Predict the 3D structure of the following.
Amino acid sequence: MPRLPCAFFARPTQNVARELLGQRLVRLERGQRLAGLITETEAYIGQDDLACHARFGRTPRSAVMFGRPGVAYVYFTYGMHWMLNVVTEAEGFPAAVLIRGLRPLEGEARMRRRRGLAGMGSRAARRAPAPLARLTDGPAKLAQALSIDRRLNGHDLCAPGAVLYIERAAPAPDDQVTRGPRIGLNNTPEPWKSMAWNWKLEARD
DNA sequence: GGCCCGATACTCT
DNA sequence: GAGTATCGGGCCC
Protein backbone atom coordinates (compact mmCIF):
# COMPACT_ATOMS: atom_id res chain seq x y z
CA MET A 1 0.00 0.00 0.00
CA PRO A 2 1.29 3.49 -0.83
CA ARG A 3 2.16 5.81 2.02
CA LEU A 4 0.59 9.22 2.39
CA PRO A 5 3.08 11.76 1.00
CA CYS A 6 4.11 15.04 2.62
CA ALA A 7 1.74 16.88 0.28
CA PHE A 8 -1.20 15.20 2.00
CA PHE A 9 -0.32 16.95 5.26
CA ALA A 10 0.61 20.30 3.71
CA ARG A 11 -3.05 21.31 3.48
CA PRO A 12 -5.73 22.88 5.72
CA THR A 13 -5.74 20.99 9.01
CA GLN A 14 -9.50 20.35 9.01
CA ASN A 15 -9.25 18.58 5.64
CA VAL A 16 -6.34 16.48 6.85
CA ALA A 17 -8.15 15.54 10.07
CA ARG A 18 -11.28 14.49 8.18
CA GLU A 19 -9.41 12.53 5.52
CA LEU A 20 -7.17 10.69 7.97
CA LEU A 21 -10.23 8.75 9.14
CA GLY A 22 -10.07 5.26 7.69
CA GLN A 23 -6.36 5.48 6.81
CA ARG A 24 -3.91 2.96 8.26
CA LEU A 25 -1.38 4.05 10.88
CA VAL A 26 1.68 1.79 10.81
CA ARG A 27 4.41 1.45 13.42
CA LEU A 28 7.46 -0.67 12.63
CA GLU A 29 8.82 -1.96 15.89
CA ARG A 30 11.59 -4.52 16.13
CA GLY A 31 10.85 -5.64 12.59
CA GLN A 32 7.16 -6.15 13.18
CA ARG A 33 4.20 -4.18 11.87
CA LEU A 34 1.77 -2.79 14.39
CA ALA A 35 -1.10 -1.14 12.58
CA GLY A 36 -4.60 0.19 13.03
CA LEU A 37 -7.35 2.03 11.20
CA ILE A 38 -7.64 5.65 12.30
CA THR A 39 -11.06 6.16 13.90
CA GLU A 40 -10.81 9.54 15.63
CA THR A 41 -8.88 12.74 14.93
CA GLU A 42 -8.75 16.30 16.20
CA ALA A 43 -7.46 19.55 14.66
CA TYR A 44 -5.29 22.13 16.45
CA ILE A 45 -4.81 25.15 14.25
CA GLY A 46 -2.41 28.03 14.75
CA GLN A 47 -1.51 30.47 17.51
CA ASP A 48 -5.01 31.98 17.58
CA ASP A 49 -6.50 28.61 18.58
CA LEU A 50 -6.30 28.87 22.38
CA ALA A 51 -6.45 25.08 22.72
CA CYS A 52 -3.35 24.64 20.54
CA HIS A 53 0.03 24.19 22.20
CA ALA A 54 1.34 26.89 19.84
CA ARG A 55 -0.83 29.51 21.60
CA PHE A 56 2.25 30.72 23.52
CA GLY A 57 4.20 31.03 20.29
CA ARG A 58 7.27 28.99 19.53
CA THR A 59 8.47 27.23 22.69
CA PRO A 60 10.72 24.19 23.15
CA ARG A 61 7.67 21.94 23.20
CA SER A 62 5.71 23.51 20.35
CA ALA A 63 8.68 24.04 18.01
CA VAL A 64 7.94 20.84 16.06
CA MET A 65 4.52 22.18 15.11
CA PHE A 66 6.17 25.14 13.40
CA GLY A 67 8.23 22.78 11.27
CA ARG A 68 7.60 20.63 8.22
CA PRO A 69 4.22 18.96 7.62
CA GLY A 70 4.15 15.18 7.87
CA VAL A 71 6.34 15.14 10.99
CA ALA A 72 5.20 13.57 14.27
CA TYR A 73 4.58 15.88 17.23
CA VAL A 74 4.64 13.65 20.31
CA TYR A 75 4.18 15.26 23.72
CA PHE A 76 3.81 14.15 27.32
CA THR A 77 0.86 15.08 29.54
CA TYR A 78 -0.91 14.32 32.82
CA GLY A 79 2.38 13.08 34.22
CA MET A 80 2.18 9.74 32.43
CA HIS A 81 0.71 9.83 28.93
CA TRP A 82 2.09 10.37 25.42
CA MET A 83 0.03 11.84 22.58
CA LEU A 84 0.64 11.44 18.85
CA ASN A 85 -0.01 14.29 16.43
CA VAL A 86 0.97 14.83 12.80
CA VAL A 87 2.08 18.32 11.80
CA THR A 88 0.01 19.98 9.05
CA GLU A 89 -0.11 23.07 6.82
CA ALA A 90 2.86 25.02 5.46
CA GLU A 91 6.16 25.09 7.29
CA GLY A 92 6.14 28.04 9.69
CA PHE A 93 2.40 27.79 10.46
CA PRO A 94 1.89 25.80 13.68
CA ALA A 95 -0.88 23.20 13.35
CA ALA A 96 -1.35 19.47 13.80
CA VAL A 97 -3.84 16.63 13.90
CA LEU A 98 -4.12 14.61 17.10
CA ILE A 99 -4.71 10.89 16.49
CA ARG A 100 -7.24 9.98 19.17
CA GLY A 101 -8.38 6.50 18.23
CA LEU A 102 -7.47 3.36 16.28
CA ARG A 103 -9.05 0.04 15.43
CA PRO A 104 -6.26 -2.56 15.68
CA LEU A 105 -5.52 -4.37 12.42
CA GLU A 106 -2.03 -5.90 12.76
CA GLY A 107 0.05 -6.93 15.75
CA GLU A 108 -2.82 -7.25 18.20
CA ALA A 109 -0.92 -9.61 20.49
CA ARG A 110 2.00 -7.23 20.90
CA MET A 111 -0.35 -4.28 21.41
CA ARG A 112 -2.12 -6.17 24.17
CA ARG A 113 1.19 -6.96 25.82
CA ARG A 114 2.26 -3.33 25.76
CA ARG A 115 -1.09 -2.15 27.10
CA GLY A 116 -1.13 -4.80 29.79
CA LEU A 117 2.27 -3.96 31.24
CA ALA A 118 0.99 -0.99 33.21
CA GLY A 119 -1.56 -3.06 35.08
CA MET A 120 0.63 -6.08 35.82
CA GLY A 121 0.01 -7.49 39.24
CA SER A 122 -3.11 -5.44 39.71
CA ARG A 123 -6.67 -6.57 39.80
CA ALA A 124 -6.97 -5.32 36.21
CA ALA A 125 -4.39 -7.84 35.00
CA ARG A 126 -6.56 -10.68 36.28
CA ARG A 127 -9.66 -9.34 34.57
CA ALA A 128 -11.09 -10.56 31.30
CA PRO A 129 -9.10 -9.06 28.40
CA ALA A 130 -10.44 -5.83 26.94
CA PRO A 131 -12.43 -6.19 23.73
CA LEU A 132 -10.41 -5.38 20.62
CA ALA A 133 -12.35 -2.19 19.97
CA ARG A 134 -11.35 -0.83 23.39
CA LEU A 135 -7.66 -1.61 23.12
CA THR A 136 -6.61 1.60 21.33
CA ASP A 137 -9.68 3.85 21.54
CA GLY A 138 -7.91 6.77 23.22
CA PRO A 139 -4.86 8.88 22.42
CA ALA A 140 -2.76 7.66 25.35
CA LYS A 141 -3.88 4.06 24.83
CA LEU A 142 -2.82 3.95 21.19
CA ALA A 143 0.51 5.60 21.97
CA GLN A 144 1.22 2.96 24.60
CA ALA A 145 0.07 0.10 22.35
CA LEU A 146 2.28 1.25 19.45
CA SER A 147 5.26 2.12 21.63
CA ILE A 148 5.11 5.80 20.74
CA ASP A 149 6.92 8.20 23.06
CA ARG A 150 9.43 11.07 23.01
CA ARG A 151 11.80 9.11 20.77
CA LEU A 152 9.36 9.67 17.90
CA ASN A 153 8.91 13.40 18.45
CA GLY A 154 10.10 15.01 15.22
CA HIS A 155 10.02 11.72 13.27
CA ASP A 156 9.30 12.27 9.57
CA LEU A 157 6.39 10.08 8.50
CA CYS A 158 7.15 10.75 4.84
CA ALA A 159 10.84 9.79 4.85
CA PRO A 160 11.98 6.50 3.36
CA GLY A 161 12.96 4.32 6.30
CA ALA A 162 10.36 5.85 8.60
CA VAL A 163 9.28 3.58 11.46
CA LEU A 164 5.98 5.41 11.77
CA TYR A 165 3.85 6.33 8.76
CA ILE A 166 0.34 6.25 7.33
CA GLU A 167 -0.78 4.03 4.46
CA ARG A 168 -3.52 5.06 2.09
CA ALA A 169 -6.76 3.14 2.39
CA ALA A 170 -10.34 3.66 1.21
CA PRO A 171 -11.73 7.04 2.28
CA ALA A 172 -14.28 6.96 5.10
CA PRO A 173 -17.77 7.59 3.65
CA ASP A 174 -19.57 10.71 4.94
CA ASP A 175 -22.45 8.73 6.40
CA GLN A 176 -20.04 7.04 8.81
CA VAL A 177 -18.38 10.25 10.01
CA THR A 178 -19.52 12.50 12.85
CA ARG A 179 -18.14 15.85 14.02
CA GLY A 180 -18.17 17.45 17.43
CA PRO A 181 -16.23 19.62 19.86
CA ARG A 182 -12.73 18.62 20.86
CA ILE A 183 -12.27 16.51 23.97
CA GLY A 184 -10.82 17.57 27.30
CA LEU A 185 -10.63 21.34 26.78
CA ASN A 186 -12.13 22.16 30.15
CA ASN A 187 -10.37 25.47 30.66
CA THR A 188 -10.19 26.69 27.05
CA PRO A 189 -12.11 29.92 26.32
CA GLU A 190 -14.80 30.15 23.67
CA PRO A 191 -15.12 29.95 20.77
CA TRP A 192 -12.20 27.55 20.73
CA LYS A 193 -13.63 25.21 23.32
CA SER A 194 -16.67 24.48 21.16
CA MET A 195 -15.20 24.42 17.66
CA ALA A 196 -16.33 21.19 15.97
CA TRP A 197 -12.80 20.07 15.23
CA ASN A 198 -13.14 16.45 16.34
CA TRP A 199 -13.93 13.81 13.72
CA LYS A 200 -15.04 10.25 14.43
CA LEU A 201 -15.51 7.22 12.24
CA GLU A 202 -18.53 5.21 13.38
CA ALA A 203 -17.82 1.76 14.67
CA ARG A 204 -19.55 -0.47 12.13
CA ASP A 205 -19.05 -4.20 11.76
C1' DG B 1 -24.47 3.45 31.34
C1' DG B 2 -22.88 7.31 34.59
C1' DC B 3 -19.77 10.30 38.05
C1' DC B 4 -15.79 11.09 40.95
C1' DC B 5 -11.22 10.64 41.99
C1' DG B 6 -6.12 9.92 42.19
C1' DA B 7 -1.86 9.13 39.81
C1' DT B 8 2.07 11.73 38.12
C1' DA B 9 5.63 15.01 35.94
C1' DC B 10 6.17 18.31 32.68
C1' DT B 11 4.72 22.86 30.58
C1' DC B 12 4.73 27.91 30.67
C1' DT B 13 2.95 32.45 33.21
C1' DG C 1 2.58 27.36 41.35
C1' DA C 2 -1.32 26.15 38.38
C1' DG C 3 -2.93 23.68 34.75
C1' DT C 4 -2.95 19.67 31.91
C1' DA C 5 -5.45 17.54 24.07
C1' DT C 6 -5.89 10.98 29.99
C1' DC C 7 -6.86 6.64 32.06
C1' DG C 8 -8.52 3.10 35.13
C1' DG C 9 -10.72 1.88 39.35
C1' DG C 10 -14.49 2.30 42.51
C1' DC C 11 -18.88 3.22 43.18
C1' DC C 12 -23.88 3.96 42.02
C1' DC C 13 -27.77 3.54 39.40
User: Anything to note?
Assistant: Residues 42, 44, 51-53, 75, 77-81, 83, 85, 98, 100, 118-119, 122-124, 138-141, 182-188 of chain A lie near DNA strand C (CB under 10 Å from a C1').
